[in-house]
Amino acid sequence: MRWVMPLLPLILLVACGGDGIAKPSSSPTYEEFISPRLGYRIETPEEWTIEEDSLESNGESYPVDGFMSPLGEQDFPANVNLTSRSALGRTFDAIIAMERVTMRENWEDVREDELVVAGHEAVIFHYSFETYGTSYEGEFSPVDFSKVFVVIDDVEWEMWLTTSLGDRDRYMP
How far are the Cα atoms of 60, 99, 125 from residue 38, in angstroms, in the given order? Predict the structure, then answer.
């Protein structure tokens, strides 16, 4: 099993409502989650639920691990999803160029920032849109969406965060 240390701080900060500090003010109890499909382990806040799923893209299926916060007072629970796939034969620049096209074709007002994840160049895209809230009774909730791309040892990692509109900064490192 691989230990994906580079993504661990980013995931923990996001999952904990991170403001650059590894523990939120309410100090939740943590439990270990091991993902044999993606090859990492992480400690998550006990009250968050975890779902193992898959993503269909360009005719291929990729495993996805999803981490969801309790609903609380938000219309939409914060959630973090993580997937990986081989990056062999594709450069980081080619991956990002393709994602830029997809983002710009499908969303308005996409913001792009560069960051470093464990010494590796990474890119994060941010935008907002409306989706069904947790009740799924036809009411839409505006949400913020952020998606990080990083390539580490020929593996492309994607992590995305979805929160209620205006709540994103609570969860970003």
Answer: 16, 21, 22
CA distance 45 to 27: 9
Instruction: Indicate the helix (H) or strand (E) that contains 124.
Output: strand 120-132
In the chain, count of helices (H) and strands (E)? 3, 9
Task: Give CA–CA dist 170/173, Å, rounded.
Answer: 8
pTM of the predicted model as reported, rounded to 2 decimal places: 0.74
Q: Are the CB atoms for 121 and 47 separated by under 8 Å?
A: no
Which is nearest to 164 in space by CA: 143, 150, 135?
143
What number of residues does the chain have? 173
46-91 confidence digits (pLDDT tens): 888 888 888 887 788 889 999 888 876 566 778 889 888 889 999 9
- Identify the DSSP state of 137: S
